[in-house]
Amino acid sequence: MISKGWQWVPEEPVALSPLFAWPPNPRAILKWVTESWATTTARLLILGLSLATWALTQPALERATTFQADWMLQIWARNLALMIFVAGGLHLFLFTLKKQTDKRKFDPRDLAAKSRAFSFRNQVHDNMFWTLASGVTVWTLFEWASYWAYANGYITMITFAEHPIWFVLLFFLIPIWGSFHFYWIHRLLHWPPLYRLAHSLHHRNINIGPWSGMSMHPVEHLLYLSTCMIHWIVASHPIHVLFHLQLKSLEASTSHSGFESLFIRDKRQLALGDFFHQMHHRYFECNYGTLEMPWDRWFGSFHDGTEAQDAKMRDRRKRMHGS
After folding, report:
1. What's the burial of 122, exposed, middle or buried (CB within 10 Å: 0-12/13-18/19+)?
2. In this model, does residue 236 exceed pLDDT 60?
3. What pTM was computed for the model?
4. 3-state secondary structure the chain
5. Domain assignments of the chain as residue spans, ordered by start
6. Residues 6+ apart with CB under 8 A from 294
7. How many angstroms separate the CA atoms of 130 and 109, rounded?
8. Residue 147: its pLDDT value, please?
9. Which residues are CB-neighbours of 218 under 8 A, at least 6 positions away?
10. Are 189 and 220 in contact, with CB atoms under 8 Å apart?
11. What is the pLDDT of residue 107?
12. Average pLDDT over residues 69-98
């Protein structure tokens, strides 16, 4: 594994999920699915959070037949609180109080406190502003539009009682669709005109922290969160939209935490970030997707963290830029 400039790296090469490997390996697929859903993961915790917020804080769907301030502000306030709780809580634990010290921290550097690259010359303040002002707003806009469309019968809604298997299966399919959507939107955002307009704001963060995940330009937020529009076509339930948007918004904070895992009392409690995406923030031209799908391998941008792959990436960059 490459180690220059990194504080911690995994011992083994980064591996993609076996979901799309050929020939299929049922045992490996079962292990991957089990580790994603049947153990303590950010994805599973967000699913539990989604079910709880739906039961405790979701306005009745009948209220969404018209755009009224009461139910709309209720959803916005909930999303704001969730983002502050997840991103703010992780930042407080990992960076402010340093409860974990530097255990499993990828980058040895501190987050930038005085840098002209960031609004307010402060990385955390910059990230918080774009996350809360733009990210939570766009996230909420998609929820408003979706619930209004469900309430007025413009998109097909299913219920658990009528379609129990499809209802449950959708929760497992949402992350796979999200991975597919993310890769292509991300590649689009690296198209030079869009990169200069929008995505460069996210890439101010070479060294990342929990507030970096949703620190994006409004245009990027619209593209990134448009993943939930699949529910406007495929029959689903409003709770699937709620989970989908919470997953994409809140998991961005865990995956950009800058740490591989969360440790409490020196015991590993939760998987957080992955070296795969951490490398993208440092090298820019690799690992555009996620570990869920093999698009980067298929299109030659996969970096597994090894010295050999690092040499290939440098050679590819020279050929691409003619130097």
Report:
1. middle
2. yes
3. 0.95
4. CCCCCCCCCCCCCCCCCHHHCCCCCHHHHHHHHHHHHCCCCHHHHHHHHHHHHHHHHCCCHHHHHCCCHHHHHHHHHHHHHHHHHHHHHHHHHHHHCCCCCCCCECCCCCCCCCCCCCHHHCHHHHHHHHHHHHHHHHHHHHHHHHHHHHHCCCCCECCCCCCHHHHHHHHHHHHHHHHHHHHHHHHHHCCHHHHHHHHHHHCCCCCCCHHHCCCCCHHHHHHHHHHHHHHHCCCECHHHHHHHHHHHHHHHHHHCCCECEEEECCEEEEECCCHHHHHHHHHCCCCCCCCCCCHHHHCCCCCCCCHHHHHHHHHHHHHHHCC
5. 18-321
6. 16, 17, 20, 21, 302
7. 22
8. 98
9. 134, 137, 138, 198
10. yes
11. 96
12. 98
pLDDT band at 97 (very low <50, low <70, confident <90, very high): very high
* Encoded tokens for 137: 């707003």
What are φ and ψ of residue 270, in 5° steps? -155, 135
Single-letter code of the amino acid located at 304: D
90's tokens: 């992780």
Omega before residue 192 within 30° of 0, cis: no
- Token output for 138: 């766009």
Cα separation of 25 and 48, whole Å?
29
